[in-house]
Amino acid sequence: MALKATIFKAELQISDMDRHYYGAHALTIARHPSETDERMMMRVFAFARHASEALAFGKGLSADDEPDLWQKDLTGAIELWVEVGQPDEKRIMKAAGRAAQVIVYSYSSHSRIWWEQIAGKIGRAKNVAVYQIEPAASTALAKMAQRTMQLQCTIQDGELWMNAGDESVHIVPLLLR
Predict the structure, then answer these.
(1) The sheet that has 69-72: what strands, in order across it?
(2) Is the pTM of this model over 0.90?
């Protein structure tokens, strides 16, 4: 018998001073049985960083042809494709061909090694941005994971603060490309 996804609910308040975006989102997050709290919370982080009414969670680990997050325009064209983790170069290049913009958030302690291996292979894709998140920040974010969450996110000058109750995590994405 196959394991089913675990459902998490999050009330996410966003104050993004960089984009002048302020909103509240009621998120329903399906965590794949093989997904960790850290990876799931990195998807929430990515949602907060790119929040809009059109941004949606993809099937992620459950589907090879969908990202962790994406935004489509009214015609169905993919405007934004967001991956978390360390996707292989074939997946990134395929996404670059399908979407106007591709963003990857790598958060493992092995991010630099992964990046050194694929940097040259994705060089011709001009619509791809790759960020590294410090492992300490993603680990702290994972500790906030609960089946029901109340999260507040503030973004200013490219930095992000995620709060849940008395806990706070400061995240500074480092642009690798």
Answers:
(1) 55-57, 69-72, 78-84, 99-106, 128-132, 174-175
(2) yes
CATH code where residue 45 lies: 3.10.640.10
Q: What is the sign, positive or negative, of the torsion defined by CA atoms of 71, 75, 76, 80? A: negative
Query: Could you give the C-alpha distances from 42 to 11, 68, 97, in angstroms and in order?
Result: 16, 10, 24
| Residue 104 belongs to domain spanning | 6-175
Give SS3 for 64: coil
User: Which contacts qualify for 115-118: CB closer than 8 Å, 24 or more apart?
Assistant: 115/176, 118/88, 118/89, 118/92
In sequence order, what are the beta bridge partners of 147?
none
Q: Which two tokens stand for residue 152?
A: 């507040």
CA 90 – CA 5 distance, rounded (Å)? 26
Q: Which amino acid is at 10?
A: A
Q: Indicate the number of domains in the chain.
A: 1
For residue 110, name the pLDDT band (cuts at 50, 70, 90).
confident
- Beta strand 21-31 pairing with 128-132: unpaired
